Amino acid sequence: MKKGAVVGLCLFASLALAGCSTPYRMMLKDGKVVEMVDEPEFDEDTGFYEYQTLDGKNVRVNKDQVVEIKEM
Questions:
Q1: Which residues does residue 23 pair with via DSSP β-bridges, in sequence order?
Q2: Is 37 exposed, middle or buried (0-12, 13-18, 19+ CB in 10 A)?
């Protein structure tokens, strides 16, 4: 009984955490559209947006290349 409760709790927790992130879509000047896990972070010191793609890659892109960022 305890084992089932632990498995159920872990499943619930992982689903709840997955629901916390909101995917975003970024359109670049070259027409490329990038989908990301969550809202990109902007580094004012470097002028780059930093984000994680849906397949788990960490990426940086110059703000001058970005046309728009939208929540999906």
A1: none
A2: middle
The residue type of 20 is C
> For residue 41, is pLDDT > 80?
yes
What's the whole-number average pLDDT of the chain?
85
CA distance 40 to 14: 22
The residue to which tokens 């896990």 are assigned: 37
pTM: 0.69
Q: What distance in Å separates the CA atoms of residue 39 and residue 53, rounded to the nearest whole number?
A: 11
Q: In terms of DSSP H, where are the helices of 1-72?
A: 2-18
Q: 22-71 architecture in CATH?
A: Roll (2.30)
Cβ neighbours for 48, distance < 8 A, ≥ 6 positions apart = 42, 60, 61, 62, 63
Q: Pull the structure tokens for residue 22.
A: 């909101």
